[in-house]
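REQUEST FORM: STRUCTURE PREDICTION
Request ID: SP-0412
Submitted by: Lab K.M.
Chain count: 1
Length (residues): 318
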Amino acid sequence: MSAFAVDLEDMRAAARRIAPFAHRTPVATCATLDRIAGRALFFKCEHLQKAGAFKFRGACNAVLRLSPETAARGVATHSSGNHAGALALAAKLRGIPAHIVMPRNASPVKRRAVEEYGGRVVECEPTLAARETTVAAVVAETSATLIPPYNHVDVIAGQGTTVLELLEQAPGLDALVMPVGGGGLMAGATLAMKALAPNARVFAAEPMGADDAARSKAAGRLIPQTGPNTIADGLLTGLGDLTWPVLRDCVERVVTVADEEIVAAMRLAWERAKLLIEPSAAVALAAVLAPEFRALRGMQRVGVLLSGGNVHLDALPW
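STATUS: Completed
RESULT:
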């Protein structure tokens, strides 16, 4: 075990464990986006993952790690969307119950996915406190195992498998950029990069309306998320005690982008690259296109993690 939550062997074990179930997602390129960014971009297409997001990797790893006796009691979580669907699907594949606490304002497409995968949706108010108290009650009622969206070693190890694949598909990357919300993807991806490509630079991308990671990085201490307001609904959560140290010690900087930049990047991805990503995934592309990032030197080959593609098609931002 490393000084952080997981190490390379944990991620390699996760990759072997989930291989029969998870997609090995492709890496896409786009000459137009390269020209706009001024760099060669390599997009890891996790919007094509099962359940429509990278979250399936971590949820699947965590569910498969449960003993038969523990698994039989089911799993529970709270999530505004992608982890909810991922855990419901992972539970379905193992044949166990899934109890999913979702805020009442969660994306309808994400709620429908949970229900279609056979998960039981328990509605709550759209606050972190309400989510946590509701899921605690569900766990007490059902004896299910809590699988949190990001602050969990098996979840983080599963998310890190994205980069194990990316570095095989696009070797020689100078940098990696990924969105950060709770930090499960950020932590797993960063630790994989530091283990396998130690000279590569690592950046997190975050909406200005939910910038607790940027503020925490600047202050050198964990600052809780309060009152987030952004179109990137998958990035409304705050960092956890397992994910914050990775951001603090291993991520070079957090690039923040406005909702207008996120929408513009999402539209570019749809129109020019035919990458049908959701706003949270577009945060990473928006950061790569932002003046702050473009001003940085010494990076020609940049990996961009496109985290998900679960878009509410009746409420597109344009």
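NOTES: The mean pLDDT is 95.
Reviewed by: T.R.
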